[in-house]
Amino acid sequence: MRSLLLASTLVLLPLAASPWVQGDDVPERTAAEPADALEARRLRALYIDLFGRPPTLEERARWLGKGAAELLDVALGEPEFWRNWLTEELYFLLLIDNFRPTSERVLALPERLAAGELGVRDALVYVALSASFDRRNPGPDTFVTVVLEQFRGENVQASPKNLAVGKKLYDGTPARFLGQMGRTQADVVRLALGDRHALEVLLARAHRRLLDTEPERRALGDWARRLERDPLAFGGIVREWLLSSAYQARLETRRTLPNHAFVRALFVDLTDRAPSDVEVDRIRGAMDGLADATPLRSVFARLLVDSGQAVLPKKAAIDDPTAWVAGLFERLLGRSATKDELRTFVTTFHEEACRPATILLALVTHPDYATW
Amino acid sequence: MFSPEIPRRDRVLGASANRRQFLAGTAALSAGTLLPGLSRLAPRTQHVILVAFAGGVRTRETFGTPANIPNLARLAKEGVVYHRARTANLGHFGASLSIFTGIAEARGIRENSRGEDPTVFEYARKELGLAPSDVWIATSGGAQQANYASSIHPDYGARYAANTLDGDGIFNQEFKRLLDAYGRPKEMEARERELLDRLRGAIGGQRSAEDVARSANDAKIENYILDELTRGTVDLRGTGAADAKALRVARNLLSIFRPKLLGVVLRDADVAHGNFNAYQEVIRRNDAMLGELIAAVQDDPELAESTAIFVLPEFGRDADLNSRRGLDHGDGSDDINYVSIAAWGPDFQRGVVSNNEVRTIDVAATIGTLMDFQGRYVRGKKLPKLFA
User: Which of A139, A288, A366 has the CB atom closest to B143's CB atom?
Assistant: First the structure.
């Protein structure tokens, strides 16, 4: 119900100047609204949604107060945005840890997507044809089931016919699968990802990820048609979503950060650098091993703070503790501190046993920090 | 070795247990809402260990090849074994989840989200008022298996979740090396710890009693993880290492937290798709690690006479080898649809082999009977001929 309401009140912001919106893809504007200036909350959320991490200090200084559309125009052309999209998709397919694809073809996808050399559907075909996907989903039953479930949203137990036919193709027997002839394991992937329904499933997944709502049926059909017509339209569709009133509405509630985003956030916020994929994978893997990762998140926050790598001023160098604490709330939690919070923090700061690290730890080990 | 003489002294139930018994019986008569088949309450079992010997394991390679499973075979010999336990190929995730919910439910193979129906862990925590540290699951399958901790059911859910630890995810060399590179977190002085708590408590207003309790539980788990990283679990390697770690973690959790309900979920047997010999190797290794877990129960006087153990796969595998000389799971044969359940405990019969048809989802109902909780949504029935 809520998603219907949000979709129907979608407000589109200025689009024509964007490299992500071209020709007849420019949708009709339903209302005009000036681009929102990026404040702490929105900037942090947009960075996490686009890149899977918050902004560094330099990026923050660059973008605070600028328009969201301007940020999006830059971000959607960055390989880092597409790397984050691919990371999310690989996680969705559980191609993680030992199953993370290592082939050149898959590793090159973010650059190729950013350069407009291929679209998201083709990228997923490459992923599903990788040795990692095959190793992760061994045998005809598992392989075809996962392709149908993950790429098409099918319940194979409820309608086993497609599974039975797909298994024939997997074994090299020609058969009509999803309305078209095929005869190989690769055909299972190509045909499963080849129609508009597969695009709807792909877009609905991205919509849920970014807006936390189910897309409205008709809008989803429109987006899928656009993507079918123009395989490179995905960036433009994401741009619309992130500039919409639905995204504004999504920011009114906070969602729990997935472990990989939490690890990246912690690195950036404490050390002002993005971690390597290897660092993220190892820590994320450990956190994924807990239904509630809070204890391990806390352990890792303490490790980073105590490692000497955290960017922390000396206590004596903090001339204005109130401003310093207020700045930390804005940067780490994406909101202003309340008067009570500020009072408690500043009073505590002046206690001898309180280090700047104590303040930082209190913020990054609090449940609010693990949300965006 | 683990053949303890189980004393037959009468157990004296506490007042609350007697009251619960009475209420449960009354409720059963008046509303008919108790687990199907619940006719008596087990008087001695205080701890339950439920091992999902999962990954797709046929009876042919377990009870059909006793040399593969000396420990499981002895456990069964001293308890009850059901060789005709009906199950379904609902995917590893769905079929394992069904063991915990008592409801056969299809789930996507790579689905990575909580189920809709409550698990035995949630029933136990909510209805018996158990603390988080009383209910644990040790897994070997990473992110997806963390979903066994709890459902999204509005009456149960995360508030009643089991603590879940994935042995291989946490206790691996790479993670240990990474932590070593950063150094251990420094011990915090008591005063600084107090200040930290005060600061955290000030964020977002008053903390609820539930939040405070959760923080205390988190602190215990933090310490456990840091300690476990220095034990031998990290060094387990080779084929089936993830399962071995899950069973080792379970053993260590048992001695440290003494949980009332401990689940273990394995999965390495799925290597069978491409390698039948490796599959058998996993089964043998898991049996050896299971032996460690059983010994930990047996060597502890209190646990030895108050612990029940259930071991069962989620489903079997195909009847015939595939072209890669491996075993898939999709032919719909009896080899895949029937598995064996072994049950051992102070309240169970000994030396019983049953060929009656039961279901893997019956285990959830049976645990409800043992632990004295209602399982409102459980569809299985108490296992027949189990109780002494």
Answer: A288
**Cα four-point dihedral sign B275, A141, B361, B63:** negative
Concatenate the DSSP letters of all residues of B3-26 into one string.
------PPP---HHHHHHHHHHHH
**B50 three-state secondary structure:** strand
What are the φ/ψ torsions at residue B147 (nearest 5 degrees)?
Answer: -70, -10
Q: Is B196 on the interface with A (CB under 8 A)?
A: yes
Helices (H) and strands (E) counted in chain A, each on its own, are 23, 2
Q: Using alpha carbons, list the distances in angstroms from residue A72 to A32, A115, A343.
A: 18, 16, 37
Joined tokens for residue A81: 């945005």
| Number of residues in chain B | 388
* DSSP assignment string, B220-243: HHHHHHHHHTTSGGGG--STTHHH
Task: Report d(CA B98, CA B364) in Å as an integer.
Answer: 9
Distances (CA, A) of A274 to A38, A72, A74, A270: 21, 20, 18, 10
List, for residues A314-347, the tens digit of each pLDDT value.
999 999 999 999 999 999 999 999 999 999 999 9
Q: Any idea what DSSP says for residue A331? A: I
- Do A281 and B157 contact (CB within 8 A), yes or no? no
Residue B284 has a CB neighbour count (10 Å cut-off) of: 18
CA distance A149 to B110: 8
CB contact (8 A) between residue B203 and residue A365: no
Q: What is the DSSP string of A117-182?
A: SS-HHHHHHHHHTSHHHHHHS-HHHHHHHHIIIIIH---TTT-THHHHHHHHHHTT--EEETTEEE
Per-residue pLDDT at B304: 95
Q: How far apart are CA B3 and CA B74, in angstroms?
A: 9
Distance, in angstroms, between A12 CA and closest chain B CA?
Answer: 32
Residues of B in contact with A155 (CB under 8 A): 106
Cβ atoms B321, B294 nearer than 8 A:
no
What is the reported pTM? 0.81
Best of B164, B171, B196, B265 to disrupt the A interface by mutation (most A CBs within 10 Å)?
B196
Contacts of A306 in chain B (CB under 8 A): 182-183, 185-186
Q: How confident is the model at residue A129 (pLDDT cuts 50, 70, 90)?
A: very high
Q: Count CB-CB contacts under 10 A for residue B28.
A: 15
> What's the pLDDT at A21?
55
Half-sphere exposure of A79 (CA within 13 A, CB side): 8
Mutate to test the interface with B, among A296, A298, A347 (most CBs of B within 10 A): A296
Tokens 């099918």 belong to residue: A154
Decide if pLDDT at A86 tops 70.
yes
User: pLDDT under 70 in chain B at which residues?
Assistant: 1-43
Which residue of chain B has the CA closest to A135? B274
Structure tokens at A292: 């509630």
To the nearest whole angstrom, how far is the Cα of A70 from the nearest Cα of chain B?
A: 33
Minimal C-alpha gap between A351 and chain B (Å): 9
Among candidates A288, A302, A333 on the partner chain, residue whose Cβ is nearest the Cβ of B146: A288
